[in-house]
Amino acid sequence: MQVFDRIGGDDYEQVVFCHDRASGLRAVVAIHSTCLGPALGGTRFYPYASEDDALEDVLRLARGMTYKAAAAGLDLGGGKAVIIGDPVLLRSEALIRAYARFVDSLGGRYITAEDVGTTQADMDLIRRETRHVTGVSRGLGGSGDPSAATAYGVLYAMKAVSRHLWDTTSLDGRHAVVSGVGKVGYGLVRHLVEERARVTVSDVAPAAVERAVRDFGVDSIPPEKAHAVEADFYSPCALGRVLNANTIAELRCAAVVGSANNQLEDAGCAELIEQAGVLYAPDFVVNAGGVVNIAEELIGYHRERAYASVRRIFDTTSAVIGQAASLGITTAEAANRLAERRLAEVGRIQLIRTTSRRGNP
Ligand code: NAD
């Protein structure tokens, strides 16, 4: 892959390759934009098949964070990091702390947090090397793992979709298929059961399915069939790119509302979903709860205030669905326009000089 061609196309500001032979650390930090503030995004620890795959993933995810933060109304830019390797085999104190020192070296341009394969305990270790980390434990002044807030936000996106489709915010009696019952999916199932929805779960990890079935008395289905179940909601809460021409043709749900990042295999899939008569709630609007919650750490964490902000995902989702309907565009396009408008309008005020200095003092 030609790296500069790839990062220039979507205007990435900075891509940093981090290496520490002794601990086995191979990581990439991608900063897509600091237009609205420091680039915040989690660290994914994953056994990528190739370095190209890792780079592709971190670039897509970092750009997604710019849009997520912008659409959620945060004063944050977009970034993301990946550590290449199997966290079960490779994780060590030395590796995590070596990675943390690279994060520190960016001087706050990038702020990290949990993502797939990393935990609150990792963030606490990272905190020993740098201030530029969120999602640390409450004892360290943090808000803890953001997954609970993400799940709460997905619930409110579902309520917004429900009001649009069925004129009620109640999910009582609705059927939701949650694919991926890890940190976010499990929390979402809990909320849905509390809302008296009917839930079917699936996961590639049998233990995750067993836990959800045991704890909540829900049904389960093999992961390759999850998208094709006749249901009110299909909720992808595992990895991205689950919506492609093949899976979209098999959708039997009224709406797709899930936490997974980058659910569409490519931009054209948004049209296909609409043609299939399925309402797609854009991923970066739906799954902003985690970043909204941890952004509160930067001003002093207060749970009630943070969760009130997360509930605004209801309004953002409703606005996006409304805009799409009135402009005759897909919901994905409406969400992009919402984010791009804020980047342009609020990003522009950075041009207003607040001191008389120019260049070196
Ligand atoms: P997780 O690793 O805790 O859970 C993911 C689950 O998906 C695991 O149980 C895994 O076994 C399962 N899985 C993997 N491949 C699967 C497949 N093909 N079919 C079904 N299940 C599969 O991760 P998480 O933190 O719950 O995040 C889930 C998704 O939500 C990811 O895409 C993540 O990027 C996104 N997301 C998470 C947060 C957050 O706060 N954690 C915030 C925004 C977005």
Task: Give the structure's gist in a few sentences.
This protein has 15 helices and 12 strands.
Give the CATH level 1 class of the largest domain. Answer: Alpha Beta
By CATH, the topology of the largest domain is Rossmann fold
What's the number of structural domains?
A: 2
Uncertain segments are: none
The number of distinct helices, counting runs of at least 4 residues, comes to: 15
List ligands, each type once. nicotinamide-adenine-dinucleotide
**How are helices and strands ordered from N to C?**
HEEEEHEHHEHHEHEHEEHEHEHHHHH
Fraction in helix: 40-55%
* Morphology call: globular
Largest sheet: 6 strands, mixed
Report, as a whole number of angstroms, the end-to-end distance. 41 Å
What's the gyration radius in Å? 20 Å
Give the rounded overall mean pLDDT.
95
* Coarse structural class: alpha/beta
CATH architecture of the largest domain: 3-Layer(aba) Sandwich
* Approximate strand percentage: 15-25%
The total strand number stands at 12
Write the layout of secondary structure elements.
Elements: H1 3-9, E1 14-20, E2 25-33, E3 39-40, E4 43-46, H2 51-71, E5 77-84, H3 87-90, H4 93-105, E6 110-111, H5 120-127, H6 147-166, E7 175-179, H7 183-194, E8 198-202, H8 206-216, E9 219-220, E10 230-236, H9 245-250, E11 252-256, H10 269-275, E12 279-280, H11 283-286, H12 289-295, H13 303-311, H14 313-327, H15 331-348
Parallel strand pairs: 3-5, 3-6, 4-5, 7-8, 7-10, 8-9, 10-11, 11-12
Antiparallel strand pairs: 1-2, 2-5
The structure holds nicotinamide-adenine-dinucleotide.
